[in-house]
Amino acid sequence: MVWLANWVMNQVLVKSCYGFARKLKSHGFHWGDLSSKPLHQPSPFPNIAKCDLECRGSQTLACDFHKVLLRTHSFFPYFMLVAFEGGSIFRAFFLLCSCPMLWILNYEMKLRVMIFISFCGLRMKDMENTSRAVLPKFYLENLNLEAYEVVASVGSRVFFTTMPRVMVEGFLKEYLNADAVIATELHTSGCYFTGLLSKSGLLVKHSALMDYFGDTKPDLGIGNTSLHDQLFISLCKEAYVVINEEGKVMPRNKYPKPLIFHDGRLAFLPTPSATLLMFMWLPLGFLMAIYRIFLGVFLCCKFTLALGIWSGLILNFNDKNQQRSESNKGVLYVCSHRTLMDPIFLSITLGRRLTAVTYSLSKVSELIAPIRTMRLTRDREQDGETMKRLLCEGDLVVFPEGTTCREPYLLRFSSLFAELADEIVPVAMNAHVTMFYGTTASGLKVLDPIFFFMNPWPRYDIQVLGKVPRELTCAGGRSSHEVANYIQRQLADALGFECTNLTRRDKYMMLAGNEGVVQEKKGRRFC
What we know:
Layout: H1 2-27, E1 60-64, H2 76-87, H3 89-97, H4 99-104, H5 107-119, H6 124-133, H7 135-141, H8 145-153, E2 156-164, H9 165-175, E3 180-184, E4 186-189, E5 192-197, H10 205-213, E6 220-223, H11 227-233, E7 238-241, H12 272-298, H13 304-310, E8 314-319, E9 332-335, H14 342-350, E10 355-358, H15 363-368, E11 372-375, H16 380-393, E12 396-398, E13 409-410, E14 424-432, H17 448-453, E15 459-464, H18 480-495, E16 498-499, H19 504-511
Parallel strand pairs: 1-2, 1-6, 2-3, 6-7, 8-15, 9-12, 9-14, 10-11, 10-12, 13-16
Antiparallel strand pairs: 4-5, 14-15
Helix pairs in contact: 2-3, 2-5, 2-6, 6-9, 10-11
């Protein structure tokens, strides 16, 4: 038995070292790419750039997803998004630590390990939220333009991928109008993933294509130059390959659907190298966030702004409003809404005491806020009385969108503010981050300021526009809806954004599956 155990161990070590040496010799060490590089050979199929897009409306397409529609070489960033956003920071760290092992393993074992780490013990509900609210942004940003144009030209689309179905099906059906998604199935137990594959194992694309289409052949097939993909697309009547996997970047104006809402904390594609840098920055970033929050909350003085800028905060301020208040009431500042810090930055840059009204602010954030805040009730009459009273006491900041939006769009403005004041000053605000988003729809809102200030160089652009002319307000005979639409258009033009009719309710229904109203906890739930 000892002899047998030694022999097995020797075989494992020899094969592992041999595989490692072959990889090192063939590809060299590339930290950013953890996907196995399958054997490539000159393809007998033409480049996808030569595909004619005309008269394909009645044709059926069979298409690979990874390395064809997506420009990224590795599965790793998408599994990291599942681990970090759907799981926890500890799961994400464990996945990062597995990188040296992943680099040595073959393609199938690599996928199995990443699936196990990312999904073992993960709630199905958390994966659904990640698939719906987080992954589509990164898929859209990494679409291959040439491949997408071919996909969009056909009438029926069937996608095949070795990635887990739960990671791709929602995106492919909602954004690319997929008729079917054939992918790897995962094993579940109750409301949780086990991290194992179903009995069918990893998807074999050419076998799956034959099983799905039977004796008929799809009209068009798209793959890459790997032997497996060439076998896959050889079963189609007409086939093309994506030779330049990096492809052309998909511009925002060509997205299949506008990307208006998305959730999650990570603002970058978490490749292995980028994720490593993030974890190296976290300790310093957390201390930097505490320091910046301390400046705003406890050290409210004329040096606060200078100390914040010294710490890496970038603040661009432009005040075009030279007119002063002509009444005894306060000025009503109507702002676009990017993060919970909007009114604080506006108060600091204006050098004036402001009161902010909000619908959803955590009790901790409300407690430590350096400016006065007032919670609204969503009762139009009651909220109107509250805001009128606050205007009589001083300047007031309102956010008619009712919630934050990360992308260059403005949500529909509530018209309540237009009925309350004749002196209205629009303020165009925009926030820029590089590592973490300072907003969330389904996470803990109390962490929003911490995540925002953990960015190495968080940036705020604040542009105070001129006071709205009296003849364009309700006092000048305009309706409250006309005033709200006029100010929305003004702010959109100043920011370079687009106006939408979407509301706070639309955002939360899309991202969190609820209407954004906190419900009382009636009991403990496990699924």
